[in-house]
Structure formats: structure tokens, C-alpha cells
Task: inverse folding
């Protein structure tokens, strides 16, 4: 089958690109191996809420239209939003079509699927930044008496065996699951590596209001210092709730903090001695963010409209952090891997990866592969790229680039 | 993170060539095998608990390197352990390594951030229950169970900037990493 462009992935980003291509008269098809917005239906835990408030959910052709603009959607709500968006923009989606591989054939791409092949001049990868959970290799040091759950497998506290839980990773996923499991009465140990601490609200406004207003979200990929570091930054320790969560509130709730998990041997976990420093780094970086926010507010004449500046308590680090833990003896029955996610482009039969297996691209234009684009990765084009509304600006630029490529 | 622009009339000079280090980072990112270094010390037993270690060369960037001179270190145990105290203890050398590594990182990061240092003094203390090495209590480990480093820094910077400088220095310290994280060690008879 012949078309001009194949968009792989019918999530918000792929659908936004579809809308942009339709507006530019580009013949295309959107393929998804599952349903529209499949990840939000089957790969997110029930208690998940977006980190971003609802006013940030605008997509091209569909403004943010949630009844509570300051609320945070559940995964099910996001699936509904994405489904409604597909209908609204009349995206040419083919569901339950799995792409097996993509190959270069002359100046075109051959997209092989389990339902026939497509030939196209452009391919847009929109399969998401969180396609696979990352599980460290030392997970192999756990015996069968300790259950393991990735966030894809975790389906709420009842899905975890009775007893204590070690949550590895204290970014957005880890702190959400720690709060949820602790609220369900579980003994929770949280292994904390480098993380990004931000307050949910500051001076009466959501932290994303600050990031939006101060231009932080608009920081461009070709302007930041050390792009690869910014692209690897973990998602901030936030929870989609008016009740804020940080390491301090988790400690108050009875969660035990340890350093980064650095190894497991026969169910004995070892933790780094760096807990004090990773907490100090995160506290200091948060203070720097707040200082810049305050400076911006004064400069922009916003001070009168905002509550007074404040600073938050330093993260409480245990005086003698646990360095080694016999999980069985400690009553820990489950390890939850909140150790991040990675995109999965492994099915792509093209030489477009760096030595870490990451796709090489400049603002979504894949290097050395004319007509190949990628969407929805952290800091793809701007800091907003990682959030749903970021697809609006990114797809506008990349759709224009794609049209130029088709005409060349 | 924004870099503080150095005052052009009084350039910050901590004696660290940051441009060279940043250039090396860029070059080595594209040539990973050259980034593989091996550091080396040789140690010769003298008498009793006294030994003498020599450091004179290492490999990296694909070649062998010589230090500008050969450095020797006497290592011994103190008199209260019935030794002759002909040098610092091995554990004190570990503290020396940590202090030197963190201090080098402080100077480098300060240079990069445009912070002029006037003085830096670090006091590093390690706490240890010696019943561990004496075999007197199986529940006590051999090594340090806590290390505390206290830095007195006189510099043109706020306290918050100095705290950030110290925090970043720990992130960029090889000895800090080696002490806080597990390392695979192989001790063989040749």
C-alpha cells in the first residue's frame, strides 16, 4: 500500500501529527499495535494522575476543555481524551496493526506490519518515551521469594503481595507509588538516587504555572547547556494531587529512605552512601528554581498578585541511613522498579542509534534518515516536549519540515 | 543551570584549566576506548606493618604515562597498635584520597562557575570500631561506618553557592563514588 507518510503510534502525539498532516494535505495513515491511546488503557496503574494540570492539555484543533482546569487527569481520563481527539480530527487510524520493522528502500521507507506493508516517503515515530520500563541488571540477584513489579505490572496496592515493599527510584513514579502503598498501610522503603524536587504549588500557583510563565518550558534543545544531561533528567518528584508529596511528607508518613540501590546479592540489597548528597543537590536546585521564580515575579510586576515567597524544609535524611538490607529478614516481599522508562525503537531496521541505543535526532528530525521523524521524547525540541501539550508546537514545526522533505 | 559570568576586570583564576577539561569530555565522548584509564600503585613490604608504596605511572588515552616524578608513601600502623608508626595508616590514606579528590573537584567546579577561591581547608574524619579488624565482634564491619568531611571555604560567593559547589563536587569525585558505591575487587597471587 502506498501513502506519503506513516505515523506509528496513535497516542496524543501521533494524532496531533496526523491533524497537522491533514491540514497540509499530506496523504497519511496512523498505525497502532493496540487501540487508540493504548498505553493509557493498559500500561498505567489505576491511581496514576498526570503531573500536569488540565489547562496544559490543549492539542492542535482541540483546546484544553476539561471542566476543572486546575485538576489532574487519571490515566483512564487521558485515554478518553485521546480517543475523543482522534474522532475530532478524524485521524486515519488503523488499530491493532503492529509494525514489525521499517526499512529504507531507495528514497522511500518500507513499513512492514502484521497486516501487510506500507510504502511511504516519510515515517513519524510516535510510540512514546515510556514504552518499556527500565529494570537494572542486578534484579537477577533476587530470589523467587521476593516478588517484582514494574510500573506496567503494578495495578494498585492489592496487586502487591502482603508485607513490606522496597520501591527503587524516587522520581515521579516512585514517590506516587510510595505514597499510595504507604497509605494502604504497607511498610515502605524508598531507595533514592538523583532526583528533581519541586513544590506542587508555590506562592499560590501550580509549579507548572511558574514553568510556563517564566519560559522554563520553552527552553530550546539547541540553546540549553549540556543537552544530553537535560534529556536524561528524571521527571520531577510531583504527584497529580492538591495534597503535595515530597520525601519529607513520605518520611512523616513512615516511609524509610535509603540511598540509591546499587546491588542485590541473594536478597541482600546494598545502598549507596550518597543519600545525603543527592538530597542536598535536589534541595539546592529547588531553591535556585524558586529564587529565579521570585526574581521573575518581581521583574514582571507579579508580586502583588502572588502569595509571599517561602522556602521549604530541607529533606530530612536519616542520621544513619541503611546501607545494607536483608530483604527477607526485613519483611520486604516485593520490589517495585520505579527506575524509569525508555522508548522502544528496537524494531526499527535503520542505523539511526547512538552507542547507548538512543535514536540520534536534532529536534525530532532523525539524523542521517531523510523523512524520518520522532515525537514525544524529553526535551525533543523544548522542555514542553515531554508533556502532552508540547506536541502542539513540535508537530507544527516537524510537519512543515516533513512537507518540505516530500517536495524536495 | 546558568554559569556566572566572570567579572572581566578580575578574571576568576583557581588555576584549573576548565576549557581543557570540557574539551576532553567532548573528545572522549566520541572515543570511548581512550577514556579508559588504569591507575596504579605498587607496594613493597618493609618490616612489621610498615610498607612503602610507589606511584609513578598510569595508562589512559591509549598510552602509558609517567608522573613528573615518582611519589612514595610510607604506610604503617600507630604505636598503640604495637607498631612503629613509620607512616600514616592505610585508612588515613583513604581519607587523604577522598579529601584530595573532593578538593580538586571544588577548585574545578568553582572555576567553571566563576567562583574565585581564596582558601579551602577540608577536615575529613572517618569513624571506625576497631573490634571489626581485630576480629572481636562478628557484627562489626572492618571499615569506616561513617565519614565526615568539613570544608572551610573562603571565596567570593554566597553560602548557598558554596553549598551547591560542595554538592556538585561530590557528584564529580571518583573517590567519593568508589567509597559510596560497590566496586568489584580482585586480589590474586601471581
Result:
Amino acid at each position: 500500500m502506498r501513502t506519503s507518510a506513516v505515523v506509528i503510534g496513535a497516542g496524543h502525539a501521533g494524532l496531533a501529527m496526523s491533524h497537522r498532516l491533514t491540514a497540509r494535505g499530506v496523504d497519511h495513515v496512523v498505525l497502532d499495535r493496540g487501540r487508540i491511546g493504548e498505553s493509557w488503557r493498559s500500561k498505567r496503574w489505576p491511581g496514576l494522575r498526570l503531573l500536569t494540570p488540565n489547562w496544559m492539555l490543549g492539542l492542535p484543533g482541540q483546546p484544553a476543555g476539561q471542566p476543572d482546569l486546575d485538576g489532574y487527569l487519571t490515566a483512564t481520563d487521558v485515554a478518553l481524551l485521546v480517543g475523543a481527539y482522534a474522532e475530532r480530527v478524524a485521524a486515519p487510524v488503523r488499530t491493532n496493526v503492529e509494525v514489525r520493522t521499517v526499512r529504507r528502500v531507495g528514497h522511500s521507507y518500507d513499513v512492514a506490519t502484521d497486516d501487510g506493508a506500507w510504502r511511504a516517503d516519510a515515517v513519524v515515530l510516535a510510540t512514546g518515551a515510556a514504552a518499556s520500563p527500565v529494570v537494572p541488571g542486578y534484579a537477577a540477584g533476587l530470589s523467587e521469594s521476593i516478588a517484582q513489579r514494574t510500573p506496567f505490572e503494578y495495578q494498585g496496592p492489592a496487586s502487591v503481595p502482603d508485607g513490606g515493599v522496597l520501591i527503587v527510584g524516587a522520581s515521579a513514579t516512585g514517590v506516587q507509588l510510595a505514597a499510595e502503598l504507604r497509605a494502604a498501610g504497607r511498610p515502605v522503603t524508598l531507595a533514592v538516587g538523583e532526583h528533581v524536587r519541586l513544590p506542587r504549588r508555590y506562592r499560590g500557583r501550580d509549579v507548572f504555572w511558574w514553568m510556563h510563565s517564566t519560559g522554563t518550558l520553552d527552553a530550546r534543545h539547541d540553546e540549553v547547556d549540556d543537552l544530553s544531561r537535560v534529556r536524561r533528567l528524571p521527571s520531577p518528584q510531583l504527584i497529580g494531587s492538591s495534597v503535595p508529596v515530597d520525601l519529607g511528607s513520605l518520611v512523616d508518613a513512615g516511609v524509610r529512605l535509603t540511598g540509591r540501590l546499587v546491588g542485590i546479592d541473594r536478597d541482600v540489597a546494598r545502598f549507596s552512601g550518597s543519600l545525603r548528597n543527592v538530597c542536598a543537590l535536589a534541595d539546592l536546585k529547588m531553591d535556585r528554581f524558586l529564587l529565579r521564580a521570585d526574581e521573575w515575579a518581581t521583574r514582571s510586576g507579579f508580586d502583588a498578585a502572588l502569595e509571599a515567597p517561602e522556602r521549604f524544609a530541607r529533606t530530612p535524611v536519616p542520621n544513619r541511613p541503611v546501607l545494607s538490607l536483608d530483604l527477607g529478614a526485613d519483611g520486604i516481599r516485593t520490589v517495585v522498579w520505579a527506575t524509569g522508562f525508555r522508548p522502544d525503537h528496537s524494531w526499527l531496521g535503520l542505523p539511526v542509534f547512538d552507542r547507548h541505543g538512543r535514536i540520534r535526532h536534532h529536534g525530532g528530525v532523525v539524523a542521517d534518515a531523510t523523512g524520518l521523524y520522532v515525537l514525544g521524547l524529553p526535551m525533543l525540541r523544548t522542555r514542553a516536549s515531554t508533556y502532552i501539550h508540547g506536541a502542539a508546537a513540535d508537530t507544527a514545526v516537524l510537519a512543515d519540515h516533513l512537507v518540505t522533505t516530500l517536495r524536495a | 543551570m546558568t554559569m556566572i559570568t566572570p567579572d572581566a576586570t578580575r578574571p576568576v583564576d583557581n588555576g584549573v584549566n576548565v576549557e581543557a577539561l570540557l574539551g576532553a569530555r567532548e573528545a572522549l565522548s566520541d572515543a570511548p576506548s581512550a577514556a579508559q584509564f588504569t591507575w596504579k600503585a605498587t607496594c613493597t613490604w618493609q618490616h612489621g606493618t610498615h610498607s612503602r608504596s610507589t606511584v609513578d605511572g598510569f595508562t589512559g588515552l591509549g598510552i602509558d604515562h609517567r608522573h613528573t616524578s615518582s611519589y612514595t608513601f610510607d604506610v604503617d600502623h600507630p604505636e598503640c597498635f604495637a607498631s612503629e608508626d613509620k607512616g600514616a595508616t592505610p585508612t588515613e590514606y583513604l581519607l587523604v584520597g577522598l579529601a584530595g579528590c573532593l578538593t580538586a573537584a571544588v577548585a574545578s567546579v568553582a572555576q567553571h562557575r566563576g567562583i574565585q577561591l581564596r582558601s579551602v581547608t577540608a577536615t575529613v574524619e572517618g569513624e571506625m570500631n576497631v573490634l571489626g579488624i581485630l576480629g572481636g565482634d562478628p557484627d562489626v564491619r572492618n571499615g569506616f561506618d561513617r565519614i565526615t568531611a568539613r570544608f572551610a571555604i573562603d571565596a567570593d560567593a554566597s553560602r548557598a553557592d558554596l553549598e551547591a559547589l560542595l554538592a556538585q563536587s561530590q557528584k564529580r569525585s571518583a573517590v567519593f563514588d568508589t567509597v559510596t558505591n560497590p566496586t568489584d575487587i580482585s586480589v590474586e597471587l601471581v
About this structure: The CA atoms of residues 92 and 356 of chain A lie 34 Å apart. Chain A touches chain B through 17 residues (CB under 8 Å). The two ends of chain A are 22 Å apart (CA to CA). The mean pLDDT of chain A is 95.
